[in-house]
Amino acid sequence: MMLPIVAFTLISTTFFVVTGRPKISVLLSLLRQCIILAPLALIFSRIWGMWGIVVATPVSDALVLLITGALIFFELRKLRGMRNIVPEAGAESAG
Question: ∠ at Cα 68 (66, 74), nearest 5°?
Answer without folding.
Answer: 105
